[in-house]
User: Fold this.
Amino acid sequence: MRNVLVIGFSTRNVVCSGCRAGYNMYAIDAFCDQDMLRCASSAKKLETQGRFNSNCVEPAMLSEMIESFGVDFDAIIPASGFETLELPESRFPVLHNDPSAMKQVSDKSRFAKLLGTIGLPHPRTYSYREIQDARFPLMVKPACAGGGIFNRVLYDLEELDNYMLSLEDAQISLKKEELVFQDYLSGTPASVSVISTQDRTRTVAVNEQLIGVPWLTGLPFAYCGNVTPFITPYANQMENIAEELIYLLGLIGSIGVDFIVTDNGPVVIEVNARFQGSMDTVELATGSNIFQEHMQAFEGSIDQEKARKPVYRQYAARAVMYADQRRVVTEHAVAGILAKRTADVPNRGDIVGENEPITSVISTGSTRKKVMGEIEQSVMFIRGHLNLH
Assistant:
């Protein structure tokens, strides 16, 4: 197996990992960042008109784009935003999990009910019809959206109307019945990265999640990256929960389980049955190639030489910078980004909307303090270049 097509809104980490593993990588991607294009044998840009919703992508158009490569693909891999992608008429094999299992984990309301039935700790979840009896504050989020961009805390029911107006302003058409409401939990966001076959699971890493970091984004719950490893007394418990859950769900490949680590222990938030945003830091911290392990898992094997528990060589951090206003990426801005250790490098002339990701900053080192200090310095340097015209 050598020719692999990745379809997602952002595919850089997957394409570059596959390239390092020796595959001929192709991509259909909404950003076509410079570093992704360097790793890909060929790529096609997915026009989104600012709407990152795979339901807005016509299957016929996607099929035309696939055929336009003129390549006999050994596999098609759905990535970010396309987790539930089905191409029933594709002449190429699509490596994805069972659609029924995917729907169960991608719908936050259904997933919460599943966690309740198997007795795993999770925030109490309500539908719109049930929130009259709920205790505030509540976290509100779209039932089938990721990245935390539209997550908000409601302190009373009156704030829901303002939340709906903010969705309208972002051109997100959702009804109140399509929202999920959960008890708001305070704690440290974290994740466990797992590789799984049908009969075996293995934790690759436990990661800290950077969520709503003020010097990276103006959005309170937006995903801003990861630090690997996350050192916590609850690591073993989180690993065991993640492995048990993924095994019960029957999911295959690279899977992530998100947690909030509260004062009372870890609480499961959601499962991401796809390559995760933590892929960069996991690979840098452990020396693993997640793409290769994902492909092996779909072939039914897990690398037997890997330790049963995660082994970390160093700390690694990735921080996602969001634009503070609508910007056209200038040559000067690109030069500033390339002057630091970065990924997801935009092209000159790209238009980045307010509160959209503009680039990622990478750091490795012997301590968390060191890597985060370097990250923050690099972010401030790049913001300075963005503000110079």
Q: What stands out?
A: The chain has three domains: 3-96, 124-183, 188-386. Residues 188-386 form a domain with the D-amino Acid Aminotransferase; Chain A, domain 1 fold (CATH 3.30.470.20). DSSP finds eleven helices and 18 strands in the chain.
